[in-house]
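pinging the channel bc i need a second pair of eyes. not urgent but kinda urgent?? the chain im working w is below, pasted from the shared doc
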Amino acid sequence: MLDADLQIEKKGSQNLALKVLSICQCLIKLERPGQVAQIFNNLLSKVYKFYSPLTDQLNKATTGAVRHGGCLGLGLAALGTRSVKIYEHLRECLYSKNEAVSGEEDGIAMRLVLAGSMNQTAFDEMRSYILVTQHDKIQRGLRTGIAMLAYGMLEKSEPWIEILECFHSESIMSQTAVCMIAMAYAGSGNAEIKRFATIAIGFVLSGNPELCLSHSGMLSKHINGHIRYGAAIALGIACAGSGYKESVSRLEPLLQAKENFVRQGALIALSFVLIQHTESTCSNVVEFRKTITKTITEKSEDTITKFGAIVAQGILDADTNLTDEKEEFEHQQKELEAIRNPIISKLYQSAGGAGMPGGIMQMCTSI
């Protein structure tokens, strides 16, 4: 990290910058990191870009640690310049060394230089190399590097995202696609991105309803309606078919939300949670069915909310035949038990209470 920090200097004078570098080096030799951090914090907002000393140090570096700092330092100095020359220099350093230590910072440095450039050549090269290299650190660096190419580009990044999503068997590519979506819409306040990002929590934690509730529970009270909608659907997905009472109690207040689409999401989410449940297995089902009926039939209710109620009705009644068969089977089992238990008790008593099943065997042999 030393070389990364040493690229920061006083604005307007390269000579002064080199003096600052020498002072910092002395401080580091004296093991005084606190003073080094203070100097760097004071100079951070006063960056004067010069590349030659940095590229020279990077070329002369003999250890991975120095290359690690050199790559990051060059990336910071060339932040946002979209310089193809500097990108190529960093790329060659990555290809020639293929080191895990410096490779991660190399990928990050390339993203800093080409942030928001939508450089097709860089995208193709990094995408190919991320599949070839065996180093996890290099993959992580390139993951963020590829994502930053689309920084702030919104819908223009969609073709690249679709390409990354095609690699279903490569988890690193899926991660890169998610990172690119985040970078492309960073700071945009896009409502759809917020909504689907919240919904994604439900898919990730679908096997752990309690954990999903702890993560998305507070989001269900968020001031933004799109986030509340996403939190509702996330809970519905994670708790589907569970009848989980805590999730029901968290979703029910959303039925009174002022936004029609939030009410729609709450209805659908509750139907997910209560699917295949009856009054005997979950007491909330009866009241929820009444809510659905009221929402559908009430003339003053919004169309969007009514649509959610209709969908919820269909989900709630999915596989009703199986539920009915299950209830009928359970009822038959209870009837059989009512007939069977007195007979078994009588046999047990006739055998002198010799125990089961030995008592029955003893009684049978005596007959």
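so The chain is about 70% helix and 0% strand. and Confidence is low (pLDDT under 50) at residues 1-13, 43-49, 353-367. — does that match what u expected or am i reading it wrong
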